[in-house]
Inverse folding.
């Protein structure tokens, strides 16, 4: 957010940072490709990928546009459920199911967004939270399709046929790399969006909505489009989650999952390209480590989150980025 | 047959009003806090839940219900005061989302602390003996306790109205809700006003939690679900409007109640449909100021 | 400051008919009917609280009037959404400086230029729109900020920010330029620069100014509108206004700036 930054007189980032930004997709991809080599728990690594992507989608709306939503669980969950339903109830091939999940995220974002943007920015969080809770109840009730309280089971994918090669999806490492492929593609798309003319519009609207409007930008439409794009990333992440877990727990749609996106994004660094992944990694690693001693790891997460809100609003990665600029 | 159905409808209406009473109290707290501090309190549900649990604890330690009605808002309101002073105040300059984010983080912590102290499973909450049983209200027998909830809410509302209309502090709140800048310019100690308003809002939320406890028991998650519903009420009534909170609260309660009569599974969804309708037709809510829209 | 020669084109670029605005129970403006001549510099003046800013906001589309109609080049624009105004050829600057603080001056103007060219393109890299870069440079020079290309707008001096805002307003190639107290908070030096800029800009387009410093605008305006308590008190050339008894009385009660 613009208000809490001290002004440097000019924007002259170090040549290193400039280079890194230009090659951000490549660098991020490299990191993600090498990640499983340092991470002993492959399943955890996959979760980091998935939730990192989820947080990435959220970051587009909150970190870049500055619009806080507490309804992203509906986008994530819709992606997961639609992918799962396509496979379990309609026997679709995995790649179409993923596509459906992605689309579902966008559609739910369109509906929720169209209703929520009619209110002033401050209420957006409130309205999106309420609307996503509505989606939760709807999916909860549709027991025949979604399994209701018990979640959707049987989203089984054993092998993936990639250009003639049969890849074993059950092998943790190959599963990681297949999912990583999607995530890298998503990173590339995100980078394109940020570098596009629309990316400049997103910046402008975040900086000064009234001025953006006076210059001729339809701010409501900008918000809606960004929300829908955000939904695409979150829907994709949800679809991948369904495939990874082989089930879709109803908790995926719960508002607490919306909170997860917020926390991971803030912990990592809002408005930075790779921050969400760092945030997801920190969060999930903490969860795994702390829950070894105590079942109350949520307390520590909550505390860490509050500490960040109070003292490190730019998150861990974000603070690092700031240091590099100086 | 027709007479029976009418009676049943009448009873459901009353049940709706009783349900609505809890919503009203929550929405009023939210609106007060938002109107004065411009903070959407995402911990409001947690304070509601805290009220129920503090009441539970007091009852278990020999308290009586009437004492709880007084102590619970005081204790939780006190916690609210501390929260505003220590956690929220540092964030005021920063941008509208930060206090919200903080209250969200706080809700996580409060819920987890309650889980640690009281366990993850919920508890039933006994209706106080004096208030047990049912009363004939003309259209049938209606639980006495629910009547009490309606009455207690009415008392709180009346007290609040008196406070806002008749005291100088209440005047400041009303003026501040209309135009925050003016209040500051007039030299009023705004920090103190915010502190007290936050304390009041959380105290009322806790009171609502205590009232609701005999109706549904207490579990740590009770704050989360009702928060979404309280948000619906504030959107429908208009954020920052106390009259809106009252009317919308009752309306939402009645909608839930009546929908349960005809299509129980859709009862919860119905209120979101109501909210969607309001967003389409009148986004600022019934009583929200037109300036609340972009 | 030289007097503008009488504009050749007498057609009306903007007209308000019985326009009024109430906020709740407060009547900010009542029945303002006025015409703004094409190619002229018209200044809206009046003591503080007269409703100048409210009228300005109506003309620039910030909100809709409670009553009456607003016509731009013969077209009814009453209640039109704010973001459409730039596309009609109307640009504005704000009373309190409104720039994009964390973008550089160059980016500020560039993104304003982009609004007319590409608003929802999410695929192409924005660097492809290189013609915008050139035009942004030209506009920066126009408003005297050429050397400050890379400076963050939030770090500019007040007068420079104001100039930047004018540059951003020019980005939409407006036929009508609306400036709300353009010299507010400026030093005498900065004020002179701004006034010169305005006169130069007025050579190619219509300008409507809001000012409460009467002396400042007397020298450059072709016409003046005097507002008082939300009503139109007087209208005419600077000479007409100087000789107007009612206006003198109203202003005599206030200190002249």
């Amino acid at each position: 957010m613009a208000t809490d930054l001290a002004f440097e007189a000019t924007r002259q980032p170090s040549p290193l940072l400039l280079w890194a930004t230009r090659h951000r997709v490549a660098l991020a991809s490299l990191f993600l490709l090498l990640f499983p080599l340092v991470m002993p728990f492959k399943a955890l690594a996959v979760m980091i990928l998935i939730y990192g992507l989820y947080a990435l989608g959220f970051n587009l709306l909150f970190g870049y546009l500055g619009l806080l939503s507490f309804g992203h669980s509906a986008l994530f969950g819709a992606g997961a459920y639609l992918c799962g339903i396509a496979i379990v109830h309609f026997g679709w091939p995995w790649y179409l199911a993923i596509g459906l999940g992605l689309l579902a995220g966008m559609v739910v974002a369109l509906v929720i967004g169209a209703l929520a943007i009619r209110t002033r920015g401050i209420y957006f969080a409130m309205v999106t939270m309420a609307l996503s809770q509505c989606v939760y109840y709807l999916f909860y009730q549709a027991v025949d399709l979604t399994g209701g309280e018990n979640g959707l089971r049987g989203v089984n994918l054993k092998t993936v046929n990639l250009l003639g090669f049969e890849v074993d999806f059950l092998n943790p490492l190959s599963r990681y790399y297949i999912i990583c492929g999607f995530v890298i593609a998503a990173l590339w798309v995100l980078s394109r969006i940020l570098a596009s003319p629309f990316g400049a519009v997103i910046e402008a609207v975040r900086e000064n909505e009234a001025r953006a409007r006076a210059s001729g930008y339809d701010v409501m439409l900008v918000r809606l489009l960004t929300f829908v794009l955000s939904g695409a990333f979150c829907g994709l992440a949800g679809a991948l989650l369904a495939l990874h877990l082989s089930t879709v727990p109803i908790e995926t749609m719960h508002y607490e999952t919306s909170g997860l996106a917020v926390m991971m994004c803030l912990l990592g660094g809002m408005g930075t390209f790779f921050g969400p992944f760092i945030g997801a990694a920190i969060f999930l690693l903490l969860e795994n480590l702390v829950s070894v001693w105590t079942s109350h790891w949520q307390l520590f997460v909550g505390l860490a989150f509050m500490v960040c809100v109070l003292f490190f609003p730019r998150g861990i990665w974000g603070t690092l980025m700031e240091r590099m600029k100086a | 047959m027709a007479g029976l159905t009418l009676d049943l409808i009448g009873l459901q209406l009353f049940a709706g009003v009783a349900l609505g009473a809890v919503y009203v109290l929550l929405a009023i707290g939210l609106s007060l806090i938002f109107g004065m501090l411009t903070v959407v309190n995402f911990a409001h549900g947690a304070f509601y839940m805290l009220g129920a649990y503090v009441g539970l604890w007091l009852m278990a330690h020999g308290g009586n219900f009437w004492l709880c009605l007084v102590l619970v808002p005081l204790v939780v309101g006190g916690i609210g005061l501390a929260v505003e002073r220590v956690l929220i105040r540092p964030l005021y300059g920063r941008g509208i989302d930060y206090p919200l984010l903080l209250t969200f983080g706080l809700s996580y912590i409060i819920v987890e602390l309650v889980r640690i102290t009281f366990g993850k499973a919920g508890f039933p909450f006994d209706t106080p003996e004096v208030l047990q049983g049912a009363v004939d209200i003309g259209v049938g027998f209606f639980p006495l306790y629910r009547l009490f909830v309606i009455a207690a809410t009415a008392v709180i509302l009346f007290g609040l109205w008196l406070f806002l209309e008749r005291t100088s502090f209440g005047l400041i709140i009303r003026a501040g809700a209309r135009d925050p800048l003016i209040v500051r310019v007039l030299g009023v100690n705004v920090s103190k006003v915010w502190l007290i308003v936050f304390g009041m809002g959380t105290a009322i939320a806790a009171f609502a939690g205590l009232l609701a406890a005999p109706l549904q028991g207490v579990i740590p998650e009770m704050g989360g679900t009702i928060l979404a519903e309280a948000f619906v009420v504030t959107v429908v009534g208009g954020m920052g409007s106390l009259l809106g909170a009252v009317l919308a609260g009752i309306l939402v309660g009645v909608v839930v109640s009546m929908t349960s009569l005809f299509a129980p599974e859709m009862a919860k969804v119905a209120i979101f449909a109501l909210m969607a309708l309001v967003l389409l037709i009148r986004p600022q809510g019934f009583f929200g100021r037109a300036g609340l829209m972009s | 400051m030289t007097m503008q020669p009488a504009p050749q084109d007498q057609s009306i670029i903007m007209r308000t008919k019985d326009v009024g605005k109430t906020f709740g129970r407060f009547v900010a403006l009542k029945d303002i009917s006025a015409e703004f001549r094409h190619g002229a510099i018209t200044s809206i003046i009046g003591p503080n609280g007269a409703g100048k800013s409210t009228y300005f906001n109506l003309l620039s589309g910030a909100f809709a009037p409670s009553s009456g109609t607003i016509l731009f080049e013969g077209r009814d624009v009453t209640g039109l959404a704010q973001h459409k105004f730039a596309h009609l050829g109307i640009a504005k600057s704000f009373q309190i400086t409104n720039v994009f603080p964390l973008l550089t001056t160059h980016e500020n103007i560039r993104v304003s230029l982009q609004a007319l060219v590409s608003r929802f393109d999410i695929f192409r890299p924005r660097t492809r729109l290189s013609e915008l870069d050139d035009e942004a440079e030209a506009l920066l020079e126009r408003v005297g900020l050429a050397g400050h290309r890379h400076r963050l707008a939030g770090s500019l001096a007040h007068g420079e920010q104001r100039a930047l805002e004018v540059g951003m307003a020019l980005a939409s190639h407006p036929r009508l330029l609306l400036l709300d107290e353009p010299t507010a908070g400026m030093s005498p030096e900065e004020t002179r620069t701004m006034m010169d800029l305005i006169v130069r800009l007025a050579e190619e387009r219509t300008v409507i100014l809001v000012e409460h410093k009467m002396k400042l605008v007397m020298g450059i305006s072709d016409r003046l509108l005097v507002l008082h308590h939300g009503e139109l008190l007087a209208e005419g050339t600077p000479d007409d206004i100087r000789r107007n008894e009612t206006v003198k009385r109203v202003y005599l009660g206030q200190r002249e700036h």
Remarks:
- Confidence is low (pLDDT under 50) at residues 1-9 of chain C.
- The radius of gyration of chain C is 18 Å.
